[in-house]
Amino acid sequence: MKKKKSRVPNKLRIGAGIAAAGVAAASLLWMTSGKGKALQVPAYEVTRVIDGDTFVTKEDQHIRVASTEAPELDMCGGTEAKVALEKLILGKPVYMKILYRDPYDRLVSLVYSEKTFINAAMLAGGYSYYARSSPGEIGEELKDATEKAREGKKGIFSASCTQMKNAEKPSCNIKGNTRNGDIYYVPTCGVYDNVEVQLYLGDQWFCSEKEAIKAGFRRPVQCK
Predict the structure, then answer these.
(1) For labeling, which of 22, 29, 119, 125 is most exposed (least CB within 10 Å)?
(2) 197 burial type by CB count under 10 A (0-12 exposed, 13-18 middle, 19+ buried)
């Protein structure tokens, strides 16, 4: 029986190497190469979403969505990111361009549904942020998606997860920042007003210096 051709988005017209050897195809879709030649592309059924940037196929292959970093499930926005990825791919066919296998044996991939570039969709919605660059124009597209989400204060970049002031508990105004070795900033510190509390990265608000120190944070040298 002749397989029915399925239309695929223009973003998939990136060459023949969409899927790597070692992953069994659940079914076949069709794509058009840059030269206009029809190519069969293996489709994979997603059976489980682990978090906002990792999922599992029916063949028990763990796939890492390339150039995206979603919050851990216990961080601000983590559950929302998982739910968003589930809505995009769970129980649906996806097809991929696998970039490499990471140290955790996951296939780091550009992931597509029939209508959506999944990597870009997760970034554009503010469910994850751009990390670990992808090559060429695709890398620029993904980076741009994060910047637009940040400018639009979407998802993890909204006031729910990225804060300059503690609106919920104004008196707890000590900023714990995880990017430079677990440092805390008091309001009298000169750089205090420039420090964001990015809850999706594990930053915290503290009510006292004693509380911050107990949590493993320290004052930066310039604030002593």
Answers:
(1) 22
(2) buried
- Closest to 134 measured CA to CA, from 103, 100, 165: 100
Query: Torsion-angle region of residue 156: left (phi > 0), alpha (psi -120 to 50) or beta?
Result: alpha
- DSSP conformation class of 79: H
Beta-carbon contacts of 191 under 8 Å, excluding residues fewer than 6 positions away, are 185, 220, 222, 223
Tokens 């489980």 found at: 48
Q: What is the CA radius of gyration of the chain?
A: 21
pTM of the model: 0.82
**Structure token digits, residue 126:** 């503010």
Under 8 Å between Cβ of 161 and 198: yes
Q: What is the rounded CA–CA span in Å between residue 87 and residue 68?
A: 17
**Residues 163-204: tens digit of each pLDDT:** 999 999 999 999 999 988 899 999 999 999 999 999 999 999
Long-range contacts of 165-168 (CB under 8 A, 24+ apart): 166/197, 166/205
**Type and span of the H or E element at 175:** strand 174-177
Residue 25 near residue 45, CB atoms below 8 Å:
no
φ/ψ of 186, rounded to 5, equals: -95, 160
